[in-house]
Amino acid sequence: AQSVTQLGSHVSVSEGALVLLRCNYSSSVPPYLFWYVQYPNQGLQLLLKYTTGATLVKGINGFEAEFKKSETSFHLTKPSAHMSDAAEYFCAVRGNQAGTALIFGKGTTLSVSS
Amino acid sequence: KAGVTQTPRYLIKTRGQQVTLSCSPISGHRSVSWYQQTPGQGLQFLFEYFSETQRNKGNFPGRFSGRQFSNSRSEMNVSTLELGDSALYLCASSLVMGGGSYNEQFFGPGTRLTVL
Predict the structure, then answer these.
(1) How far away is chain B from the Cα of A114, in angstroms, using its nearest Cα?
(2) Least CB-CB distance to B98: which of A44, A97, A107?
(3) B9 pLDDT higher than 60
């Protein structure tokens, strides 16, 4: 069965600092991995995804993530945080090969202070 | 191109009532999935529809049901509402489903259901 664990329900950084949001997964099939962002009172927006190929994935808004099979990790990073990055971030893994259903982590709230 | 739309955006019901939520996918998208988001349980998959057929189902009681129409629009229904059904219900659409390659899911803004 597939599962996702996000370490840290709340991460606080200063503007300009490195953002690191941690995600570990468990999957019985080759994983398709995703990071989504959710702003208050909005739906989810895809930041980036890993399906196959290059293990370093670049996404929108300067975010990137690296797929590490040996560590079963898919951590999200951004070199320099901006106030507008404050939101809730979700890591997800595809539930099975037949469908598009996603299994989500519990989410990490990112706060950015000036 | 218009995004995924969900109606209504907010809904207040009382215990025991039933509710129907609507989702219009992005034009050309044929797969629609539904998720429930609560503070305690997080985001949980409800079901997925493709070509008017339910293809996958999450671990929810039979009170939760859905359907998809020939134009790919989808509705979900919750009968005999309970307090614990209060949640944000998110709909997501994708071009197709599965098939060995991933089709990105685009999410709507959600319907906020409050059960009193």
Answers:
(1) 27
(2) A97
(3) yes
